[in-house]
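Researcher: We're teaching a course module on how sequence relates to structure. For the next exercise, students receive a sequence and then see the predicted structure as tokens, so they can try to spot secondary structure elements on their own. Here is the exercise chain.
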Amino acid sequence: MSPNLIFLIFIFIWFLAQIRRLFFHISIFQLKEFRFDRYFSWLKTQEGLNVILHPWSLTKFVVLGALSWPTLFHFCFYGFFLIYFLEGIYTFFEIITLRFKRPKLTVKVTGLLILSFSIITAAALSIILLATNWLTNLSLFNNSLVKQLLIIDRLLILLIIIQIAFLNILNNKLRKHSFEKLAKVMKKNKKLKIIAITGSYGKTSTKNFLHALLCEWTTVLTIPKNINTEIGIANFILKELKAVHKILIVEIGAYRKGEIKNIGSILKPDISILTAISNQHLDLFGSQKNIIEAKFEIGEILKPNGSLIINQDSPFIKTYIKNFKKIRPDIKVKRVSITEKADYYATQISAPKPDGNITQKLTFLFNEKRGKSPVYLKTNLTSSNFVINLLLTIATARELGIKIPYIASKTEKISQPDHTLKIYKNKLLNNIIIDDSYSANETGFLEAINAADKLKAKTKVIIFRPLIELGPDSARAHQNIAEKMAKTFNYIITTSYDYIHIISSTLNKSGFNMRHFMVVKDERKLLSLIKNMVQKDTLILIENRVPEIIVQYLKSKSSQL
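Model: And here is the predicted structure for the students to work with:
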């Protein structure tokens, strides 16, 4: 084989390896909303550490360092060639088997890919052009050339970070411009009633319930799906808000203190809802105190004499509300509860029972502290975990002046949120599928296990991904979850090696049959495994961001209740 052909093949393999890494890291950044704090938090997980400490990555650093000694060049060269040869084969295998990790194409992602691709291509072409004797002599594979290729390889992630940093600066300028336009729009819509929702979990369910309850009562604009970032909220309102809208429902997410205030100080809601506070994203907030203060910003942004509706059963909320009332003494605080009397509370809660009657729908007695007679409410939901969300919804409706008869007529029509404790059943095989794949917090995880525990099935299986961004609380949380899983399930399958030692050791100590504990990262292998598990009288719980192909397959084998 001629030297020039060898060189071109090698450059192609090297180029392929760079493209694979480029796609991988941009897809991770996209998953983390292009936030450096979330990306660096991911690097601390087992998956992130596996990328940093991968043998290929470490070997490249070793080879790069060893090139300082000319006597080691031949050894380094063969190691260098072997690494990229293996990486190229692996990349090609990923492509043909459709396992190539790639981001969803958006304007930002497309721009990043084009710019990065152009830089990598330019680097590769420069190397070829600089190797003036490549047509006749393999000596082109000299110390300098190998160094150049390795340096470009090692600096790829830095290139991506620099580009994203630049885009974030641009995004901040666009956000400032959007906020200025939004402030003008809000001033023109002074009669618009604004309802803001936040919390560690339960935000989206509460938002969906509230929209379903209000949409026939008046004209409502609800920010859809999981659009809850500052720029996402601002842009959606600027695009969709019309004069006909009487109510605006906004879900606001946050990973740092001040983020709710940024957008909230412009919106200035009439009613704010605080669903719950937990340890979710503790690694990003830095402390539980910061989480609490950040979530309570939803109350600080209220208009004068506005209403803050809180979940009294959330311990952190119950404790901090006493201090918060000193910060905003002018606002009204309305409490909801399922454990004690409050401004709005539920009793006689009836939901699916341990006898396995999952067709039974959630009902409860709705009570008001102000002396109104209790009202029996029917719903179309299958889990008592939604009672708090419904209470927050009904409390908001009552603060808006909506009468109980209208509320009662609508609660029965409120549907179960997608991917949130949604139950499907195959009547022929008597299989039960619980889709809770939207959940990503410890409380929700434990509630899903509890729901599975209450239902009857010969074999119970859980497929899950460990929780992320819990910081110092990670070990305790996963130990707690593993203990509960060991008591409920016959088979436990995780799709990630994150916290694997904590989970496996806890399962072992709890007496779980470790032959029934599996780590399956590959989607196709997992799908094949699940197909064999879908037997008669089996319950399968899907928990926390399980691959969509698995969720869709299991749902296709059952019908929604």
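Model: If you want an answer key for the exercise: The longest strand covers residues 344-350. Confidence is low (pLDDT under 50) at residues 134-140.
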